[in-house]
Protein backbone atom coordinates (compact mmCIF):
# COMPACT_ATOMS: atom_id res chain seq x y z
CA UNK A 1 0.00 0.00 0.00
CA UNK A 2 2.83 2.36 0.91
CA UNK A 3 6.11 1.83 -0.90
CA UNK A 4 9.14 3.82 0.17
CA UNK A 5 12.37 3.39 -1.77
CA UNK A 6 15.75 4.95 -0.97
CA UNK A 7 14.34 8.15 0.46
CA UNK A 8 16.80 10.71 1.79
CA UNK A 9 16.12 14.17 3.09
CA UNK A 10 18.48 17.03 3.90
CA UNK A 11 17.29 20.18 5.58
CA UNK A 12 19.54 23.13 6.34
CA UNK A 13 22.63 21.00 5.78
CA UNK A 14 21.48 18.40 8.32
CA UNK A 15 20.67 14.91 7.18
CA UNK A 16 17.13 14.14 8.38
CA UNK A 17 16.58 10.85 6.56
CA UNK A 18 19.17 8.67 4.89
CA UNK A 19 18.25 6.05 2.36
CA UNK A 20 15.03 4.83 3.95
CA UNK A 21 13.23 1.94 2.27
CA UNK A 22 10.06 0.52 3.70
CA UNK A 23 7.04 -1.38 2.47
CA UNK A 24 3.75 -1.20 4.29
CA UNK A 25 1.16 -3.63 2.94
CA UNK A 26 -2.55 -3.02 2.78
CA UNK A 27 -4.63 -3.40 5.91
CA UNK A 28 -2.80 -3.06 9.17
CA UNK A 29 -1.92 -0.77 11.99
CA UNK A 30 1.75 0.13 11.89
CA UNK A 31 3.30 2.11 14.72
CA UNK A 32 6.37 4.21 14.12
CA UNK A 33 8.46 4.70 17.24
CA UNK A 34 11.83 6.19 18.00
CA UNK A 35 13.54 8.97 19.91
CA UNK A 36 12.95 12.65 19.16
CA UNK A 37 14.65 13.76 15.98
CA UNK A 38 14.77 10.28 14.46
CA UNK A 39 12.99 11.49 11.32
CA UNK A 40 9.55 9.96 11.96
CA UNK A 41 7.54 13.12 11.34
CA UNK A 42 9.61 14.01 8.29
CA UNK A 43 9.03 10.59 6.75
CA UNK A 44 5.30 10.88 7.46
CA UNK A 45 5.04 14.31 5.87
CA UNK A 46 6.97 13.10 2.81
CA UNK A 47 4.51 10.22 2.39
CA UNK A 48 1.69 12.73 2.84
CA UNK A 49 3.30 15.04 0.19
CA UNK A 50 3.37 17.93 2.68
CA UNK A 51 6.96 18.54 1.73
CA UNK A 52 8.71 17.87 -1.56
CA UNK A 53 10.59 14.64 -2.09
CA UNK A 54 14.32 15.28 -2.59
CA UNK A 55 15.52 11.84 -3.52
CA UNK A 56 14.07 8.36 -3.72
CA UNK A 57 10.54 7.28 -4.49
CA UNK A 58 7.32 7.05 -2.48
CA UNK A 59 4.08 5.66 -3.80
CA UNK A 60 0.75 5.12 -2.10
CA UNK A 61 -1.70 2.66 -3.64
CA UNK A 62 0.61 2.56 -6.66
CA UNK A 63 0.49 6.35 -7.15
CA UNK A 64 3.77 8.27 -6.87
CA UNK A 65 3.09 10.99 -4.28
CA UNK A 66 5.25 13.57 -6.03
CA UNK A 67 3.59 13.18 -9.42
CA UNK A 68 -0.06 12.56 -8.57
CA UNK A 69 -2.48 15.51 -8.36
CA UNK A 70 -2.90 16.48 -4.74
CA UNK A 71 -6.66 16.44 -5.20
CA UNK A 72 -6.56 12.77 -6.16
CA UNK A 73 -4.22 11.85 -3.30
CA UNK A 74 -6.61 13.49 -0.84
CA UNK A 75 -9.08 10.69 -1.59
CA UNK A 76 -6.45 8.04 -0.90
CA UNK A 77 -4.57 9.33 2.10
CA UNK A 78 -5.40 11.50 5.06
CA UNK A 79 -2.62 12.99 7.12
CA UNK A 80 -2.77 14.53 10.55
CA UNK A 81 0.30 16.52 11.44
CA UNK A 82 1.52 17.07 14.91
CA UNK A 83 -0.40 19.95 16.44
CA UNK A 84 -1.62 22.03 13.54
CA UNK A 85 -4.18 23.07 16.22
CA UNK A 86 -5.88 25.97 14.52
CA UNK A 87 -7.11 28.46 17.13
CA UNK A 88 -9.95 28.91 14.75
CA UNK A 89 -13.47 30.17 15.23
CA UNK A 90 -14.77 27.23 13.25
CA UNK A 91 -17.37 25.08 14.85
CA UNK A 92 -16.32 21.50 15.56
CA UNK A 93 -18.91 20.23 13.10
CA UNK A 94 -17.60 22.57 10.38
CA UNK A 95 -13.99 21.52 11.00
CA UNK A 96 -14.82 17.82 10.83
CA UNK A 97 -16.98 18.60 7.78
CA UNK A 98 -13.94 19.94 5.96
CA UNK A 99 -12.55 16.41 6.13
CA UNK A 100 -15.18 15.65 3.47
CA UNK A 101 -13.79 18.34 1.16
CA UNK A 102 -11.87 15.93 -1.12
CA UNK A 103 -15.13 14.13 -1.85
CA UNK A 104 -17.69 16.91 -1.78
CA UNK A 105 -15.59 19.93 -2.86
CA UNK A 106 -17.50 21.94 -0.29
CA UNK A 107 -21.09 20.88 -1.00
CA UNK A 108 -21.89 18.37 1.69
CA UNK A 109 -24.31 15.67 0.59
CA UNK A 110 -26.55 13.70 2.94
CA UNK A 111 -23.95 10.94 2.87
CA UNK A 112 -21.18 13.39 3.81
CA UNK A 113 -23.27 14.62 6.72
CA UNK A 114 -23.81 11.06 7.90
CA UNK A 115 -20.05 10.42 7.83
CA UNK A 116 -19.45 13.64 9.77
CA UNK A 117 -22.11 12.78 12.36
CA UNK A 118 -20.59 9.32 12.77
CA UNK A 119 -17.09 10.77 13.23
CA UNK A 120 -18.42 13.24 15.81
CA UNK A 121 -20.17 10.46 17.69
CA UNK A 122 -17.08 8.20 17.51
CA UNK A 123 -14.95 10.80 19.25
CA UNK A 124 -17.55 11.88 21.81
CA UNK A 125 -17.78 15.25 20.11
CA UNK A 126 -21.52 15.36 19.46
CA UNK A 127 -22.16 17.54 22.51
CA UNK A 128 -19.36 19.88 21.41
CA UNK A 129 -20.36 19.99 17.75
CA UNK A 130 -21.55 23.61 17.85
CA UNK A 131 -18.67 24.95 19.92
CA UNK A 132 -15.90 26.98 18.32
CA UNK A 133 -12.64 25.05 18.10
CA UNK A 134 -10.79 27.88 19.84
CA UNK A 135 -12.87 27.33 22.99
CA UNK A 136 -11.94 23.64 23.30
CA UNK A 137 -9.27 22.14 25.53
CA UNK A 138 -6.13 20.70 23.95
CA UNK A 139 -7.44 17.15 24.15
CA UNK A 140 -10.84 18.04 22.72
CA UNK A 141 -9.15 19.88 19.88
CA UNK A 142 -6.94 16.88 19.18
CA UNK A 143 -10.00 14.64 19.03
CA UNK A 144 -11.67 17.02 16.60
CA UNK A 145 -8.60 16.93 14.35
CA UNK A 146 -8.43 13.14 14.39
CA UNK A 147 -12.18 13.01 13.68
CA UNK A 148 -11.59 15.30 10.70
CA UNK A 149 -8.87 12.99 9.35
CA UNK A 150 -11.11 9.96 9.81
CA UNK A 151 -14.04 11.75 8.14
CA UNK A 152 -11.85 12.01 5.07
CA UNK A 153 -12.53 8.28 4.87
CA UNK A 154 -9.39 7.29 2.96
CA UNK A 155 -7.80 3.84 2.58
CA UNK A 156 -4.57 5.17 4.11
CA UNK A 157 -4.37 7.17 7.30
CA UNK A 158 -1.14 8.86 8.45
CA UNK A 159 -1.20 10.15 12.01
CA UNK A 160 1.62 12.05 13.67
CA UNK A 161 1.32 11.54 17.41
CA UNK A 162 -2.46 11.23 17.48
CA UNK A 163 -2.39 10.68 21.25
CA UNK A 164 -1.03 14.19 21.90
CA UNK A 165 -2.92 15.91 24.70
CA UNK A 166 -5.29 12.99 25.20
CA UNK A 167 -6.09 11.69 28.67
CA UNK A 168 -5.86 7.96 29.31
CA UNK A 169 -9.45 6.93 28.47
CA UNK A 170 -9.46 9.05 25.32
CA UNK A 171 -6.08 7.68 24.25
CA UNK A 172 -7.34 4.13 24.70
CA UNK A 173 -10.57 4.91 22.84
CA UNK A 174 -8.62 6.36 19.93
CA UNK A 175 -6.37 3.30 19.66
CA UNK A 176 -9.39 1.00 19.77
CA UNK A 177 -11.06 3.05 17.07
CA UNK A 178 -7.98 2.84 14.86
CA UNK A 179 -7.88 -0.91 15.45
CA UNK A 180 -11.50 -1.10 14.37
CA UNK A 181 -11.06 0.85 11.12
CA UNK A 182 -8.26 -1.56 10.28
CA UNK A 183 -10.16 -4.75 11.16
CA UNK A 184 -13.60 -3.77 9.92
CA UNK A 185 -12.83 -1.55 6.98
CA UNK A 186 -9.44 -2.86 5.89
CA UNK A 187 -7.67 0.48 6.29
CA UNK A 188 -3.93 1.00 6.44
CA UNK A 189 -2.90 3.15 9.39
CA UNK A 190 0.60 4.45 9.96
CA UNK A 191 0.90 6.29 13.26
CA UNK A 192 3.82 7.88 15.07
CA UNK A 193 3.45 6.86 18.71
CA UNK A 194 5.55 7.74 21.69
CA UNK A 195 3.82 5.40 24.09
CA UNK A 196 5.40 2.02 23.41
CA UNK A 197 2.65 0.24 25.31
CA UNK A 198 -0.08 1.59 23.04
CA UNK A 199 2.04 0.37 20.15
CA UNK A 200 2.48 -3.00 21.84
CA UNK A 201 -1.21 -3.45 22.54
CA UNK A 202 -2.75 -2.26 19.28
CA UNK A 203 -0.21 -2.32 16.44
CA UNK A 204 0.37 -5.23 14.06
CA UNK A 205 3.86 -4.06 13.42
CA UNK A 206 6.34 -1.61 14.85
CA UNK A 207 8.87 0.33 12.81
CA UNK A 208 11.58 1.79 15.01
CA UNK A 209 13.51 4.74 13.62
CA UNK A 210 16.81 6.17 14.75
CA UNK A 211 19.10 8.82 13.25
CA UNK A 212 17.13 9.10 10.01
CA UNK A 213 16.98 5.40 9.26
CA UNK A 214 14.94 2.32 10.12
CA UNK A 215 16.64 0.71 13.12
CA UNK A 216 14.26 -2.19 13.63
CA UNK A 217 11.07 -3.48 12.09
CA UNK A 218 8.87 -6.31 13.28
CA UNK A 219 5.99 -7.47 15.42
CA UNK A 220 5.61 -5.92 18.89
CA UNK A 221 6.64 -9.22 20.47
CA UNK A 222 9.88 -9.41 18.46
CA UNK A 223 10.71 -5.77 18.78
CA UNK A 224 9.96 -4.86 22.34
CA UNK A 225 12.91 -6.48 24.06
CA UNK A 226 15.36 -4.77 26.44
CA UNK A 227 18.24 -5.15 23.98
CA UNK A 228 16.34 -3.81 21.00
CA UNK A 229 14.94 -0.89 22.99
CA UNK A 230 18.38 -0.02 24.25
CA UNK A 231 19.81 0.00 20.77
CA UNK A 232 17.01 2.29 19.53
CA UNK A 233 16.53 4.64 22.48
CA UNK A 234 19.97 4.33 24.05
CA UNK A 235 18.26 3.64 27.31
CA UNK A 236 17.69 0.28 28.94
CA UNK A 237 14.08 -0.54 29.85
CA UNK A 238 12.55 -3.51 31.56
CA UNK A 239 9.97 -5.42 29.59
CA UNK A 240 7.35 -7.41 31.46
CA UNK A 241 4.69 -9.65 30.07
CA UNK A 242 1.04 -9.36 30.98
CA UNK A 243 -1.52 -11.71 29.44
CA UNK A 244 1.01 -12.74 26.84
CA UNK A 245 1.71 -9.21 25.58
CA UNK A 246 4.92 -7.24 26.20
CA UNK A 247 4.64 -4.26 28.54
CA UNK A 248 7.51 -1.81 28.57
CA UNK A 249 8.27 -0.39 31.99
CA UNK A 250 9.87 2.68 30.46
CA UNK A 251 9.13 4.92 33.40
CA UNK A 252 11.14 2.90 35.91
CA UNK B 1 -31.77 33.84 24.63
CA UNK B 2 -30.08 30.93 22.88
CA UNK B 3 -27.71 31.43 19.98
CA UNK B 4 -30.11 29.67 17.62
CA UNK B 5 -32.93 32.04 18.54
CA UNK B 6 -30.66 35.08 18.34
CA UNK B 7 -29.56 34.38 14.79
CA UNK B 8 -32.72 35.09 12.77
CA UNK B 9 -33.35 38.07 15.03
CA UNK B 10 -29.88 39.41 14.29
CA UNK B 11 -30.35 38.82 10.57
CA UNK B 12 -33.70 40.62 10.58
CA UNK B 13 -32.26 43.53 12.52
CA UNK B 14 -29.28 43.82 10.17
CA UNK B 15 -31.53 43.79 7.09
CA UNK B 16 -33.88 46.41 8.61
CA UNK B 17 -30.97 48.69 9.52
CA UNK B 18 -29.56 48.44 6.01
CA UNK B 19 -32.92 49.29 4.40
CA UNK B 20 -33.43 52.27 6.72
CA UNK B 21 -29.91 53.50 5.93
CA UNK B 22 -30.56 53.27 2.19
CA UNK B 23 -33.82 55.19 2.56
CA UNK B 24 -32.10 57.84 4.66
CA UNK B 25 -29.20 58.11 2.22
CA UNK B 26 -31.63 58.67 -0.66
CA UNK B 27 -33.49 61.30 1.35
CA UNK B 28 -30.53 63.33 2.65
CA UNK B 29 -28.77 65.88 0.51
CA UNK B 30 -28.33 69.59 -0.14
CA UNK B 31 -30.82 69.59 -3.01
CA UNK B 32 -34.33 69.75 -1.61
CA UNK B 33 -36.01 66.56 -2.70
CA UNK B 34 -38.79 64.87 -0.76
CA UNK B 35 -39.42 61.26 -1.57
CA UNK B 36 -43.10 61.92 -2.34
CA UNK B 37 -42.08 64.40 -5.05
CA UNK B 38 -40.65 61.58 -7.09
CA UNK B 39 -44.07 60.63 -8.35
CA UNK B 40 -44.73 64.09 -9.83
CA UNK B 41 -41.46 65.97 -10.25
CA UNK B 42 -39.12 65.11 -13.13
CA UNK B 43 -36.36 67.31 -11.71
CA UNK B 44 -36.47 65.37 -8.44
CA UNK B 45 -36.07 62.13 -10.38
CA UNK B 46 -33.11 63.51 -12.25
CA UNK B 47 -31.36 64.50 -9.03
CA UNK B 48 -32.16 61.11 -7.53
CA UNK B 49 -30.74 59.17 -10.46
CA UNK B 50 -27.75 61.40 -11.11
CA UNK B 51 -26.53 61.90 -7.57
CA UNK B 52 -28.36 60.36 -4.62
CA UNK B 53 -28.70 56.86 -6.02
CA UNK B 54 -25.12 56.67 -7.36
CA UNK B 55 -23.76 57.93 -4.05
CA UNK B 56 -25.80 55.41 -2.11
CA UNK B 57 -24.79 52.57 -4.42
CA UNK B 58 -21.14 53.61 -4.29
CA UNK B 59 -21.16 53.51 -0.49
CA UNK B 60 -22.87 50.11 -0.49
CA UNK B 61 -20.54 48.61 -3.09
CA UNK B 62 -17.40 50.05 -1.53
CA UNK B 63 -18.47 49.04 1.97
CA UNK B 64 -19.41 45.48 1.03
CA UNK B 65 -16.15 45.15 -0.89
CA UNK B 66 -14.02 46.49 1.95
CA UNK B 67 -15.66 44.19 4.48
CA UNK B 68 -15.16 41.11 2.34
CA UNK B 69 -11.62 42.15 1.34
CA UNK B 70 -10.80 42.41 5.05
CA UNK B 71 -12.29 39.00 5.74
CA UNK B 72 -10.34 37.39 2.89
CA UNK B 73 -7.17 39.20 3.94
CA UNK B 74 -7.57 37.81 7.45
CA UNK B 75 -7.92 34.30 6.06
CA UNK B 76 -4.80 34.72 3.90
CA UNK B 77 -2.72 36.18 6.72
CA UNK B 78 -4.25 33.82 9.31
CA UNK B 79 -4.63 36.80 11.58
CA UNK B 80 -7.82 38.64 12.49
CA UNK B 81 -6.15 41.98 13.14
CA UNK B 82 -5.07 42.81 9.61
CA UNK B 83 -6.93 44.54 6.82
CA UNK B 84 -5.90 46.01 3.47
CA UNK B 85 -5.49 49.59 4.72
CA UNK B 86 -3.09 48.51 7.48
CA UNK B 87 -1.13 45.92 5.52
CA UNK B 88 0.21 47.99 2.66
CA UNK B 89 -2.44 46.99 0.10
CA UNK B 90 -4.05 50.43 -0.16
CA UNK B 91 -0.69 52.17 0.04
CA UNK B 92 0.66 50.02 -2.81
CA UNK B 93 -2.48 50.76 -4.81
CA UNK B 94 -1.98 54.50 -4.21
CA UNK B 95 1.65 54.14 -5.29
CA UNK B 96 0.40 52.38 -8.42
CA UNK B 97 -2.02 55.21 -9.31
CA UNK B 98 0.73 57.73 -8.66
CA UNK B 99 3.08 55.92 -11.04
CA UNK B 100 0.29 55.62 -13.59
CA UNK B 101 -0.48 59.33 -13.27
CA UNK B 102 3.19 60.24 -13.69
CA UNK B 103 3.96 57.94 -16.61
CA UNK B 104 0.63 57.93 -18.44
CA UNK B 105 -1.19 61.11 -17.45
CA UNK B 106 -3.79 60.51 -20.13
CA UNK B 107 -4.63 56.97 -19.02
CA UNK B 108 -8.31 56.20 -18.45
CA UNK B 109 -9.70 55.38 -15.02
CA UNK B 110 -9.95 51.63 -15.81
CA UNK B 111 -6.34 51.62 -16.99
CA UNK B 112 -5.21 53.36 -13.81
CA UNK B 113 -7.23 50.88 -11.76
CA UNK B 114 -5.48 48.03 -13.51
CA UNK B 115 -2.06 49.43 -12.70
CA UNK B 116 -3.15 50.12 -9.13
CA UNK B 117 -4.39 46.51 -8.82
CA UNK B 118 -1.06 45.20 -10.05
CA UNK B 119 0.81 47.35 -7.54
CA UNK B 120 -1.57 46.27 -4.75
CA UNK B 121 -0.99 42.64 -5.70
CA UNK B 122 2.77 43.04 -5.48
CA UNK B 123 2.64 44.99 -2.22
CA UNK B 124 0.27 42.53 -0.56
CA UNK B 125 2.27 39.50 -1.71
CA UNK B 126 5.34 40.96 -0.06
CA UNK B 127 3.37 41.62 3.14
CA UNK B 128 2.04 38.05 3.23
CA UNK B 129 5.39 36.44 2.52
CA UNK B 130 6.74 38.21 5.61
CA UNK B 131 3.58 37.62 7.66
CA UNK B 132 3.79 33.87 7.05
CA UNK B 133 7.32 33.83 8.43
CA UNK B 134 6.39 35.51 11.70
CA UNK B 135 5.81 33.20 14.67
CA UNK B 136 2.12 32.21 14.84
CA UNK B 137 2.13 32.32 18.64
CA UNK B 138 2.74 36.09 18.48
CA UNK B 139 -0.47 37.22 16.76
CA UNK B 140 0.21 40.94 17.24
CA UNK B 141 3.47 40.87 15.29
CA UNK B 142 1.62 40.53 11.98
CA UNK B 143 -0.57 43.67 12.32
CA UNK B 144 2.35 45.53 13.84
CA UNK B 145 4.56 44.68 10.89
CA UNK B 146 1.65 45.64 8.61
CA UNK B 147 1.35 49.08 10.20
CA UNK B 148 5.06 49.78 9.83
CA UNK B 149 5.13 48.44 6.28
CA UNK B 150 2.04 50.46 5.31
CA UNK B 151 3.49 53.60 6.90
CA UNK B 152 6.78 53.22 5.02
CA UNK B 153 5.01 52.64 1.70
CA UNK B 154 2.59 55.50 2.36
CA UNK B 155 5.36 57.94 3.28
CA UNK B 156 7.43 57.03 0.24
CA UNK B 157 4.41 57.53 -2.02
CA UNK B 158 3.52 60.84 -0.32
CA UNK B 159 7.09 62.04 -0.72
CA UNK B 160 7.16 61.29 -4.44
CA UNK B 161 3.70 62.85 -4.87
CA UNK B 162 4.88 65.97 -3.06
CA UNK B 163 8.04 66.28 -5.18
CA UNK B 164 5.98 65.85 -8.33
CA UNK B 165 3.38 68.38 -7.24
CA UNK B 166 0.66 65.76 -7.07
CA UNK B 167 0.04 65.90 -3.34
CA UNK B 168 -3.59 66.97 -3.76
CA UNK B 169 -4.24 63.86 -5.85
CA UNK B 170 -2.51 61.77 -3.23
CA UNK B 171 -4.94 63.10 -0.66
CA UNK B 172 -7.88 62.17 -2.84
CA UNK B 173 -6.63 58.58 -3.13
CA UNK B 174 -5.90 58.16 0.53
CA UNK B 175 -8.94 59.87 2.04
CA UNK B 176 -12.20 58.22 1.13
CA UNK B 177 -14.98 60.54 0.12
CA UNK B 178 -18.30 60.00 -1.61
CA UNK B 179 -19.21 63.65 -2.24
CA UNK B 180 -17.78 63.54 -5.74
CA UNK B 181 -19.79 60.46 -6.73
CA UNK B 182 -22.17 61.07 -9.62
CA UNK B 183 -23.67 58.86 -12.27
CA UNK B 184 -20.85 57.87 -14.62
CA UNK B 185 -18.14 58.19 -11.97
CA UNK B 186 -18.61 55.21 -9.69
CA UNK B 187 -19.61 52.34 -11.99
CA UNK B 188 -16.17 50.71 -11.80
CA UNK B 189 -17.14 49.74 -8.26
CA UNK B 190 -19.44 47.09 -9.73
CA UNK B 191 -16.26 45.13 -10.43
CA UNK B 192 -15.81 45.13 -6.67
CA UNK B 193 -19.22 43.44 -6.41
CA UNK B 194 -17.96 40.80 -8.85
CA UNK B 195 -14.95 40.23 -6.58
CA UNK B 196 -17.28 39.85 -3.61
CA UNK B 197 -19.23 37.24 -5.58
CA UNK B 198 -15.95 35.48 -6.36
CA UNK B 199 -15.17 35.38 -2.63
CA UNK B 200 -18.63 33.88 -1.92
CA UNK B 201 -18.00 31.25 -4.59
CA UNK B 202 -14.59 30.31 -3.18
CA UNK B 203 -15.69 30.63 0.47
CA UNK B 204 -15.09 26.99 1.43
CA UNK B 205 -11.65 26.93 -0.07
CA UNK B 206 -10.71 30.25 1.51
CA UNK B 207 -11.79 28.86 4.89
CA UNK B 208 -9.56 25.80 4.42
CA UNK B 209 -6.75 28.16 3.40
CA UNK B 210 -7.13 29.92 6.76
CA UNK B 211 -6.30 26.60 8.47
CA UNK B 212 -2.80 26.74 7.03
CA UNK B 213 -0.74 25.09 4.33
CA UNK B 214 -0.55 21.60 5.80
CA UNK B 215 -4.29 21.20 6.26
CA UNK B 216 -4.93 22.70 2.81
CA UNK B 217 -2.54 20.32 1.06
CA UNK B 218 -3.80 17.36 3.08
CA UNK B 219 -7.33 18.08 1.85
CA UNK B 220 -6.14 18.30 -1.74
CA UNK B 221 -6.57 22.06 -2.09
CA UNK B 222 -4.34 23.89 -4.55
CA UNK B 223 -2.81 26.03 -1.80
CA UNK B 224 -0.73 28.37 -3.96
CA UNK B 225 -3.49 28.82 -6.51
CA UNK B 226 -6.03 29.64 -3.83
CA UNK B 227 -3.63 32.07 -2.21
CA UNK B 228 -3.31 33.85 -5.55
CA UNK B 229 -7.08 34.02 -5.99
CA UNK B 230 -7.45 35.52 -2.51
CA UNK B 231 -4.73 38.06 -3.30
CA UNK B 232 -6.50 39.08 -6.50
CA UNK B 233 -9.79 39.57 -4.63
CA UNK B 234 -8.17 41.72 -1.93
CA UNK B 235 -5.99 43.71 -4.34
CA UNK B 236 -8.66 44.48 -6.92
CA UNK B 237 -11.21 45.58 -4.32
CA UNK B 238 -8.65 47.79 -2.59
CA UNK B 239 -7.38 49.30 -5.83
CA UNK B 240 -10.92 50.05 -7.02
CA UNK B 241 -11.75 51.76 -3.75
CA UNK B 242 -8.56 53.85 -3.80
CA UNK B 243 -9.06 54.93 -7.40
CA UNK B 244 -12.80 55.61 -7.35
CA UNK B 245 -13.52 57.00 -3.86
CA UNK B 246 -10.24 56.92 -1.93
CA UNK B 247 -9.04 54.63 0.84
CA UNK B 248 -11.48 53.97 3.68
CA UNK B 249 -9.94 52.55 6.86
CA UNK B 250 -11.34 50.24 9.52
CA UNK B 251 -14.30 48.78 7.59
CA UNK B 252 -12.15 45.79 6.62
CA UNK B 253 -11.20 45.30 10.24
CA UNK B 254 -14.44 45.96 12.10
CA UNK B 255 -17.02 44.34 9.79
CA UNK B 256 -15.31 40.91 9.65
CA UNK B 257 -14.58 40.92 13.38
CA UNK B 258 -18.16 41.82 14.29
CA UNK B 259 -19.47 39.04 12.08
CA UNK B 260 -16.97 36.26 12.83
CA UNK B 261 -17.33 36.82 16.54
CA UNK B 262 -20.98 35.84 16.26
CA UNK B 263 -20.97 33.41 13.33
CA UNK B 264 -17.45 32.01 13.31
CA UNK B 265 -14.74 31.81 10.67
CA UNK B 266 -16.57 29.68 8.11
CA UNK B 267 -16.49 32.10 5.21
CA UNK B 268 -19.53 30.63 3.56
CA UNK B 269 -21.60 31.85 6.49
CA UNK B 270 -19.53 34.88 7.44
CA UNK B 271 -18.84 36.43 4.02
CA UNK B 272 -22.43 37.47 3.10
CA UNK B 273 -22.98 39.04 6.51
CA UNK B 274 -19.62 40.75 6.37
CA UNK B 275 -20.72 42.32 3.10
CA UNK B 276 -23.98 43.50 4.73
CA UNK B 277 -22.26 44.88 7.81
CA UNK B 278 -19.49 46.53 5.75
CA UNK B 279 -22.07 48.19 3.49
CA UNK B 280 -24.17 49.36 6.45
CA UNK B 281 -21.17 50.72 8.35
CA UNK B 282 -19.88 52.63 5.34
CA UNK B 283 -23.28 54.05 4.42
CA UNK B 284 -23.96 55.01 8.05
CA UNK B 285 -20.62 56.81 8.29
CA UNK B 286 -21.26 58.62 5.02
CA UNK B 287 -24.66 59.72 6.34
CA UNK B 288 -23.10 60.98 9.57
CA UNK B 289 -20.54 62.85 7.51
CA UNK B 290 -23.34 64.47 5.49
CA UNK B 291 -25.42 65.44 8.52
CA UNK B 292 -22.95 66.59 11.18
CA UNK B 293 -22.31 70.04 9.68
CA UNK B 294 -25.04 70.13 7.10
CA UNK B 295 -24.94 71.48 4.41
CA UNK B 296 -21.15 70.93 4.52
CA UNK B 297 -19.64 67.47 4.58
CA UNK B 298 -17.04 65.52 6.48
CA UNK B 299 -15.31 62.86 4.34
CA UNK B 300 -16.43 59.31 5.04
CA UNK B 301 -12.82 58.26 5.66
CA UNK B 302 -12.63 60.59 8.65
CA UNK B 303 -15.98 59.49 10.11
CA UNK B 304 -15.12 55.79 9.64
CA UNK B 305 -11.82 56.41 11.37
CA UNK B 306 -13.64 57.63 14.49
CA UNK B 307 -16.60 55.23 14.46
CA UNK B 308 -14.45 52.27 13.41
CA UNK B 309 -11.85 52.88 16.08
CA UNK B 310 -14.56 53.09 18.74
CA UNK B 311 -16.18 49.87 17.48
CA UNK B 312 -12.86 48.09 17.37
CA UNK B 313 -11.96 49.09 20.92
CA UNK B 314 -15.38 47.88 22.01
CA UNK B 315 -14.70 44.56 20.25
CA UNK B 316 -11.35 44.16 21.96
CA UNK B 317 -12.41 45.13 25.46
CA UNK B 318 -15.96 43.84 25.23
CA UNK B 319 -14.55 40.39 24.63
CA UNK B 320 -12.30 40.62 27.62
CA UNK B 321 -15.18 41.70 29.87
CA UNK B 322 -17.15 38.64 28.80
CA UNK B 323 -14.16 36.39 29.35
Description:
The complex is a heterodimer of chains A (252) and B (323). Chain A has 252 residues and is of the alpha/beta class. Chain A is 35% helix and 28% strand. Chain A is globular and about 50 Å long. Chain B has a single domain, classed as ABC transporter involved in vitamin B12 uptake, BtuC. Chain B is built from 13 helices and no strands. In chain B, helix 3 crosses helix 10 and helix 7 packs antiparallel against helix 12. Chain B is globular and about 65 Å long. The two termini of chain B are 18 Å apart. At the A-B interface, helix 2 and strand 6 of A face helix 8 and helix 9 of B. Chain A: InterPro entries: AAA+_ATPase (IPR003593), ABC_transporter-like_ATP-bd (IPR003439), ABC_transporter-like_CS (IPR017871), P-loop_NTPase (IPR027417), Siderophore_ABC-ATPase (IPR051535).
Helix/sheet category of chain A: alpha/beta
CATH topology label of the domain at 1-76 and 157-166 and 188-252 in chain A: Rossmann fold
Distance between the amino and carboxyl termini of chain B: 18 Å
Largest sheet of chain B: none
CATH class annotation of the domain at 1-76 and 157-166 and 188-252 in chain A: Alpha Beta
* Main sheet: strands, sense, barrel of chain A: 6 strands, mixed
CATH superfamily of the domain at 1-76 and 157-166 and 188-252 in chain A: P-loop containing nucleotide triphosphate hydrolases
Query: How many DSSP E strands of chain B?
Result: 0
Number of domains of chain B: 1
Q: Give the uncertain stretches of chain B in residue-range form.
A: none
Topology pattern of chain B, helix = H, strand = E: HHHHHHHHHHHHH
Termini separation of chain A comes to 38 Å
Strand content of chain A: 25-35%
Number of discrete helical segments of chain B: 13
Strand order of the largest sheet of chain A: 6-7-8-3-9-10
User: Would you count the extended β strands of chain A for me?
Assistant: 12
Examine the secondary-structure arrangement and name the CATH architecture of the domain at 1-76 and 157-166 and 188-252 in chain A: 3-Layer(aba) Sandwich
Domain ABC transporter (chain A): 2-236
GO molecular function (chain A): ATP binding; ATP hydrolysis activity
Keywords (chain A): ATP-binding, Cell membrane, Ion transport, Iron, Iron transport, Membrane, Nucleotide-binding, Transport
Membrane topology (chain A): Peripheral membrane protein
Amino acid sequence: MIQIENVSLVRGGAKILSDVSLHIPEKGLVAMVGPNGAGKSSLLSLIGRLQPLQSGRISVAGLPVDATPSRELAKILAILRQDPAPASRLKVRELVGFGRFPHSRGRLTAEDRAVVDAALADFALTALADRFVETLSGGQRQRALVAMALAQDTPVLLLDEPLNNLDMPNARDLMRRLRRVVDERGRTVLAVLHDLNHAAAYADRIVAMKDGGVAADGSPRDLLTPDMLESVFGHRMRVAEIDGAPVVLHHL
Amino acid sequence: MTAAAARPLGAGAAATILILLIAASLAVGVGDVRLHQLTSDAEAWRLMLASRLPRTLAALLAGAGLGVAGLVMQALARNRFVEPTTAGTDQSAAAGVLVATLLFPAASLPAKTLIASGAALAGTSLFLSVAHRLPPNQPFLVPLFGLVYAAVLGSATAFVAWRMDLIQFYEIWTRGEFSGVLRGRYELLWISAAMVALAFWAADRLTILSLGRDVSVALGLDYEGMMRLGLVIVSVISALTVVVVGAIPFVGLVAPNLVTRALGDDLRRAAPWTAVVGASLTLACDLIGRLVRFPYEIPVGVVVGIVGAALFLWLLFGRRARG
